[in-house]
């Protein structure tokens, strides 16, 4: 019987259950079952009991192996997926085109999409809308996705998911014309559309507007100079409004220093805190151009290097 048990262990060692612990204690347990009553003849119950004990050992070993394999699989790190490659933004991304021929028309390239706003009360034909499908009233908005723009010198061809939407021809630094002769303008130059970033240092050069200036330096903070105030091109600038609120007249020559002024920037925006109560806000719309909340443009005194 000892040889048989040894042979059984050797057989188990050559299988997937080689990790099972069948030691002397296990052997003794089997012997006690088989030989607990030597005075009695052979009993089927003893064989069944022994077989049951061996089966229990094998089942326990199988359960242990399965738990081990499951644990190892759970700890294997998943393969990292390759980072998706982002395509470079097209040259018109972020630009807004406003209608000159039809003031109710505009379109905006934003986040890879093209949003077109149309006022149907205008009579001109738009290249992206069939005249027969135009509504008789109300403003409509259409969004095209997956925009791509191909440029051939002054010609810009706009596609949505590979389908031609319309074409634009650049007729001036900030003027564009579609195939139907409708004219549109932008707030920024095409070459600058991809890198307009506000910098605190921009105000060291100063910006001009109608003979007036606003600029900043380390010694005197923000300085505002205005030769005169009043309506220009139909509306006041933010500087005009601020100075009129301070009690200055349209004929005054004004020079003010704000030594405690602070300039902060965010993307294309400048936020200027003149003092505890007064603040100004501007947006960079060109490499040398900023615009205030009233739509008035200011031009950089010097081209930054």
Question: Can you characterise this structure?
Answer:
By secondary structure, the protein is α+β, with helices and mostly antiparallel strands. It contains five helices and 18 strands. The strands form two sheets. It has a nine-stranded antiparallel beta sheet, with no helix packed on it. It has a nine-stranded antiparallel beta sheet with strand order 13-12-11-10-18-17-16-15-14. A hairpin with a 2-residue loop joins strand 10 and strand 11. Helix 2 (24-35) runs antiparallel to helix 3.
List keywords for this structure.
305 residues, 5 helices, alpha+beta
Write the layout of secondary structure elements.
Blueprint: H1 2-13, H2 24-35, H3 44-75, E1 96-99, E2 106-110, E3 113-118, E4 140-144, E5 147-152, E6 155-160, E7 163-172, E8 175-178, E9 183-186, H4 202-205, E10 207-209, E11 212-217, E12 221-226, H5 238-245, E13 254-258, E14 262-266, E15 269-273, E16 279-286, E17 289-292, E18 297-300
Antiparallel strand pairs: 1-2, 1-9, 2-3, 3-4, 5-6, 6-7, 7-8, 8-9, 10-11, 10-18, 11-12, 12-13, 14-15, 15-16, 16-17, 17-18
**Which parts are unreliable, with pLDDT below 50 for 5 consecutive residues or more?**
73-87
Which band does the percent of strand residues land in?
25-35%
* Basic shape: flat
The side-by-side strand order for the widest beta sheet comes to 4-3-2-1-9-8-7-6-5
* Class from secondary-structure proportions: alpha+beta
- Kindly report how far apart the N and C termini lie: 97 Å
The major β-sheet equals: 9 strands, antiparallel
Please tell me how large the radius of gyration is.
41 Å
The H-and-E topology, N to C, reads as: HHHEEEEEEEEEHEEEHEEEEEE
Helicity range: 10-25%
Mean pLDDT figure: 74
Number of strand elements = 18
């Amino acid at each position: 019987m000892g040889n048989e048990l040894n042979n059984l262990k050797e057989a188990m060692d050559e299988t997937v259950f080689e990790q099972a612990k069948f030691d002397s204690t296990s052997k003794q347990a089997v012997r006690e079952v088989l030989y607990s009553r030597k005075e009695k003849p052979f009993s089927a119950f003893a064989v069944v009991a022994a077989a049951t004990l061996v089966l229990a050992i094998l089942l326990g070993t199988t359960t242990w192996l399965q738990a081990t394999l499951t644990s190892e699989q759970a700890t294997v790190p998943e393969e990292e997926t390759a980072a998706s490659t982002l395509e470079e933004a097209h040259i018109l991304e972020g630009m807004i085109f406003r209608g000159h021929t039809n003031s109710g028309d505009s379109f905006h390239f934003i986040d890879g999409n093209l949003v077109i706003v149309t006022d149907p009360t205008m009579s001109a034909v738009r290249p992206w809308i069939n005249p027969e499908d135009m509504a008789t009233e109300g403003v409509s908005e259409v969004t095209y996705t997956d925009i791509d723009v191909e440029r051939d010198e002054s010609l810009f061809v706009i596609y949505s998911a590979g389908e031609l939407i319309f074409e634009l021809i650049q007729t001036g630094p900030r003027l564009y014309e579609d195939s139907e002769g409708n004219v549109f303008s932008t707030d920024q130059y095409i070459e600058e559309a991809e890198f307009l970033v506000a910098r605190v240092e921009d105000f060291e050069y100063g910006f001009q507007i109608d003979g007036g200036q606003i600029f900043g330096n380390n010694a005197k903070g923000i300085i505002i100079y205005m030769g005169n105030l009043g309506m220009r091109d139909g509306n006041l600038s933010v500087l005009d409004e601020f100075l009129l609120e301070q009690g200055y007249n349209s004929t005054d020559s004004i020079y003010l220093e704000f030594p405690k002024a602070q300039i902060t920037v965010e993307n294309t925006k400048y936020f200027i805190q003149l003092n505890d109560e007064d603040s100004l806000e501007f947006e960079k719309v060109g490499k040398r151009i900023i615009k205030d909340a009233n739509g008035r443009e200011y031009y950089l005194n010097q081209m930054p290097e």
